[in-house]
Design goal:
Strand content: over 45%
Strand order of the largest sheet: 1-2-3-4-5-6-7-8
Number of helices: 1
Largest sheet: 8 strands, antiparallel, barrel
CATH class of the largest domain: Mainly Beta
Shape: elongated
């Protein structure tokens, strides 16, 4: 019964369309080691903590609270905070507006960060998710799959249940395989090396084969371990000139 309820839940979520990207992660500019931004997302709101340095070279504490606008960017005030020395009993803190901040996504993995501090000027930096450790996604899963095809005569789509087996070698540079046994009788596999972007994986130009003779390539994006399973998306040019997109979400079996 639990398995059936999980399948129904995943299929309903898939039918509702892809969720927006979750930007929760550590972000940084690779040439500037030791500088960065922690981001936690709640719906269309981001809470950002900056770890950067003042004119005296010492760490300086800033936070931003930004909300997504119609263009997809997140904008809002930047605050400077001071507080009680950590070794003393807490006596409160002082928070003041220090400027503005704008987080401007480019891809699920990269963005522009623009901010102003105390009228010093406008700082603009390209940032990306910072990888920390290899996250394990290997194992067997059961869930739901949403498919859509466009740009061709037979355009269409739908939802179905799926069993997924992920094979992830110990060597992080070795190809990973995401094998999907679909409820429509097809077995399809996506195989390729993973690119690490913080808590997300990307698989570019992955081999995409199915038991119906399909043999093409796909781009797999936002592949990630969830609290109880796995989720991800892919896009590929398939038979008849169709552009196929797929979204899957599944729990560990």
């Amino acid at each position: 019964m639990l398995r059936r309820l999980l399948l129904i839940t995943f299929l309903c979520v898939a039918a509702g369309g892809a969720a927006a990207t979750d930007y929760t992660d550590i972000w940084y500019d690779p040439p500037q080691s030791g500088w960065g931004v922690n981001i936690v997302q709640s719906d269309n709101f981001l809470f950002m903590t900056f770890f950067l340095y003042g004119s005296d070279g010492r760490p300086t504490w800033y936070v931003a609270q930004v909300t997504q606008d119609a263009s997809g960017n997140f904008n809002g005030p930047l605050y400077q905070a001071t507080g009680t020395y950590f070794a003393l009993p807490w006596a409160g803190n002082v928070v003041s507006v220090a400027g503005t901040a704008s987080f401007q996504p480019i891809t699920p993995y990269s963005a522009n960060l623009v901010y102003t501090v105390n009228n010093v000027g406008t700082i603009s930096k390209p940032i990306q998710r910072q990888p920390l450790t290899v996250i394990s996604i290997g194992g067997g899963y059961t869930g739901g799959l949403a498919l859509a095809q466009s740009g061709c005569v037979a355009s269409g789509g739908g939802t179905l249940s799926v069993n997924i087996q992920v094979t992830q070698p110990v060597d992080p540079t070795a190809p990973v395989t995401v094998a999907m046994n679909r409820a429509d009788g097809l077995t399809c596999s996506l195989t390729g090396p993973l690119k690490y972007w913080g808590k997300l994986y990307q698989m570019q130009n992955a081999s995409y084969t199915c038991t119906n003779g399909r043999d093409t390539t796909a781009n797999v994006d936002e592949l990630t371990a969830t609290a109880h399973g796995i989720e991800g998306t892919w896009s590929a040019l398939v038979e008849g000139g169709c552009v196929e997109t797929g979204i899957f979400s599944a729990v560990m079996r």
